[in-house]
Amino acid sequence: QVHLVESGGGLVQAGDSTRLSCVASGSIYGFNIMGWYRQAPGNQRELVATITNGGRTNYGDSVKGRFSISRDNAGNTVVLTMNSLKPEDAGVYFCNLRTGISVEASNYWGPGTQVTVSS
Fold first, then answer.
1. What pLDDT, in 10s, does the model give residues 84-99?
2. φ and ψ at 76, to 5 degrees?
3. What angle do CA 84, 90, 94 make, to 5 degrees?
4. Nearest 5°: CA angle at 35, between 32 and 52?
5. Is 69 helix (H, G, I), strand (E, B) or coil?
């Protein structure tokens, strides 16, 4: 089993930067993808950024060029650096770990952390 512990979030000003961290623990073996998804009020959950254990990244279109994702601590920690924040970046951010691309792969979610962007 895998569990994800999120940290970061809170209130930030538009144009500022902040960081979210997620630490995965448990039985993590082989190929895996860690990352962040977010859900704003009234919207569906959307991709923010993911990174594989091999370092390949994928970003949602709305955050490309502004956000950056990285892994450390033997790949068990993922850090999302969020720059040039916009009000539309606000929402609940969920850490995710997936063991494959297939929908049949194991999929784990953190509890979510709130990011509020003030104008």
1. 999 999 999 999 999 9
2. -90, -5
3. 105
4. 35
5. strand
